[in-house]
Write a sequence for this structure.
């Protein structure tokens, strides 16, 4: 079991409020990703859950039990650090088994569990090496091995893949997701990589300046962003925002249309006319950055190749069903 | 082509390193050679390098005239004692400054270093008088005390930089793994701090072993370490190069041997943090 609940969790460092009241319900076995801009408090929130930092106010429940006064090791969670944080003087075997040793398990039981974990992570040939003799990806796997071997109620990951190169990151992303599904253990994963968030998460928490802006499944966030911040943060390229006449016509202060929901017409009269400033041809996609005069720069995405070039005039027609409307305060208008 | 250029570069830098090493080592080599010469040959111009009449007579004279073992024992006690006490004080001090720094930590560190900026001779008179009043002149305890205080700032600085290098994440990982403070100390911190501790210990031993200002001024015979033993050959009846060299060779031999056997540790300690 590993159900984690936050109730009004706050954290201040001296006079500075970093986490301004977080409420969250994380179901057992789910994979939850925290995303948000740098400095918004993702790491801090994760460390509060881990117990590496004390809450200023609020309650953290694990399986219904308030753990705010419980030391980290007793919370039954394990953490994978961005820097791997392996013990440099211990072998891979020692690193993975350290938590079990601290828990007072018998030697042969530790060995059995360590070897099982190593087998899952393809680390068996490296068991007797020191961390400095491993590649980045292997070190990361050792860090993950150290987390899974204790059979925790939950995993906490703080940007575990950010030190790896792009190809390895994709591979590890898939491995982590597969492993988590296979073990069925609750996981909280911090990243500021959108693709990681969208692909790995059952549910995403969007954090901004210490506040939870929205909590929902990746598609919910994509299709029904709660406010301007989430709308702009989720999705790549970013959603286009238009204010003024076009927005007022639709009863909103701001409307948003994703680049993939703009129809590109070569010389249509309807929609939003403009001149292409930059055209990016990726083969699979074409991105157009269009200078639409008073509306500002708009981005449009076309699936496939579109032979348009900088300087061409186009008209962008928003898909009426995919227009997001926001009020003065920046919150979504539904219905 | 590229490979040949690299080979040549390696050869040149190897030769350069040997040359530099030889230049640095030459005075010591010269001293050792001189210790086996007669007093006349030691002065001879042009000097003879290897082809002279090798003799052990200087060593015999030195041993006869003064008690080497007595001074060596004093050196061991003074260098060892002052180093151990300095470490006992410095480890917790550096520890707390590295792991729970306050606003004043930087200032305290600077202040400690600033005490090393004053030339020791500036406080010789007051310290001499204090030692005289308290009855610490020519006592091992007194020398242990003064050398320990003298080296403490450097020891604390070195340990502080080593401890700072230990990533916090690792300590937190150990906490997540369920290590209590005590076990964290035994299984994680100490093994990671040992290279730094060892090199600090070695360096401090060498500094204390070779310290000549306070030992010469505050001791005469009872507590006199090897530095005093060497100095005694540059006085009353004039300079005796060969005997002075023999005395010096005897005095540095123990520390040279220690340094030789721990060179790996020393180098690792001195470059700690530079190579990841
Ligand atoms: N120990 C601390 N003392 C004071 N301020 C802190 C401390 N730790 C974090 N902060 C501040 O809290 C804010 C949130 O930090 P946090 O590390 O949680 O951000 P983050 O969302 O993880 O950012 P990133 O994506 O860059 O890792 C930052 O403004 C940071 O300066
Ligand atoms: Mg962070």
């Amino acid at each position: 079991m590993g159900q984690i609940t936050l109730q009004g969790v706050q954290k201040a460092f001296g006079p500075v409020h970093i986490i301004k009241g977080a409420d969250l319900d994380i179901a057992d076995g789910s994979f939850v990703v925290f995303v948000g801009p740098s400095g918004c408090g993702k790491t801090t929130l994760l460390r509060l859950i881990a117990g590496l930092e004390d809450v200023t106010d609020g309650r953290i429940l694990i399986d219904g039990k308030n753990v705010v006064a419980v030391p980290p090791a007793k919370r039954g969670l394990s953490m994978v650090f961005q820097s791997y944080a392996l013990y440099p003087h211990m072998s891979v075997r020692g690193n993975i088994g350290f938590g079990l040793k601290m828990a007072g398990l018998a030697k042969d039981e530790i060995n059995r569990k360590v070897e099982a974990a190593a087998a899952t992570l393809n680390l068996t040939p490296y068991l007797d090496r020191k961390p400095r003799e491993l590649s980045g990806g292997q070190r990361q796997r050792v860090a993950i091995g150290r987390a899974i071997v204790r059979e925790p109620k939950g995993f906490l990951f703080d940007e575990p893949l950010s030190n790896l190169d792009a190809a390895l990151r994709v591979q590890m992303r898939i491995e982590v997701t597969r492993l988590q599904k296979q073990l069925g253990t609750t996981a909280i994963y911090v990243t500021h990589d959108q693709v990681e968030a969208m692909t790995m998460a059952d549910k995403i928490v969007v954090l901004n300046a210490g506040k939870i802006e929205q909590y929902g499944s990746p598609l919910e966030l994509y299709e029904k962003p709660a406010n301007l911040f989430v709308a702009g943060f989720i999705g790549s390229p970013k959603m286009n925002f238009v204010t003024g006449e076009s927005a007022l016509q639709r009863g909103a202060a701001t409307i948003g249309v994703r680049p993939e929901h703009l129809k590109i017409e070569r010389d249509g009269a309807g929609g939003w006319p403009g001149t292409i400033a930059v055209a990016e041809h990726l083969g699979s996609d074409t991105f157009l950055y269009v200078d639409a005069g008073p509306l500002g720069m708009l981005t449009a995405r076309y699936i496939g190749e579109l032979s348009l070039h900088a300087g061409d005039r186009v008209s962008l027609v928003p898909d009426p069903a995919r227009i997001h409307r926001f009020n003065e305060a920046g919150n979504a208008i539904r219905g | 082509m590229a490979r040949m250029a690299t080979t040549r570069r390696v050869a040149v830098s190897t030769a350069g390193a040997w040359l530099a090493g030889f230049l640095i080592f030459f005075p010591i080599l010269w001293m050792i050679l001189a210790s086996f010469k007669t007093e006349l040959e030691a002065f001879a111009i042009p000097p003879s390098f290897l082809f002279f009449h090798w003799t052990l007579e200087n060593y015999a004279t030195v041993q006869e005239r003064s008690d080497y073992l007595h001074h060596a024992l004093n050196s061991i006690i003074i260098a060892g004692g002052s180093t151990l006490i300095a470490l006992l004080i410095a480890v917790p001090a550096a520890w707390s400054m590295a792991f729970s720094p306050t606003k004043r930590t930087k200032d305290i560190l600077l202040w400690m270093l600033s005490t090393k900026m004053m030339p020791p001779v500036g406080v010789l008179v007051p310290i001499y008088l204090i030692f005289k009043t308290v009855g610490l002149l020519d006592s091992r305890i007194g020398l242990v005390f003064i050398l320990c205080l003298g080296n403490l700032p450097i020891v604390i600085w070195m340990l502080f930089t080593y401890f700072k290098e230990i990533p916090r994440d690792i300590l937190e990982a150990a906490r997540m793994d369920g290590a209590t403070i005590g076990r964290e100390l035994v299984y994680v911190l100490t093994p990671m701090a040992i290279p730094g501790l060892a090199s600090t210990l070695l360096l401090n031993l060498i500094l204390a072993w070779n310290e000549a200002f306070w030992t010469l001024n505050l001791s005469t015979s009872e507590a006199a370490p090897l530095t005093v033993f060497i100095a005694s050959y540059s006085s009353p009846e004039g300079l005796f190069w060969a005997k002075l060299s023999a005395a010096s060779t005897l005095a540095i031999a123990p520390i040279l041997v220690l340094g030789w056997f721990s060179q790996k540790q020393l180098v690792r300690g001195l470059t700690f943090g530079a190579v990841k």
About this structure: Chain B is about 75% helix and 0% strand.
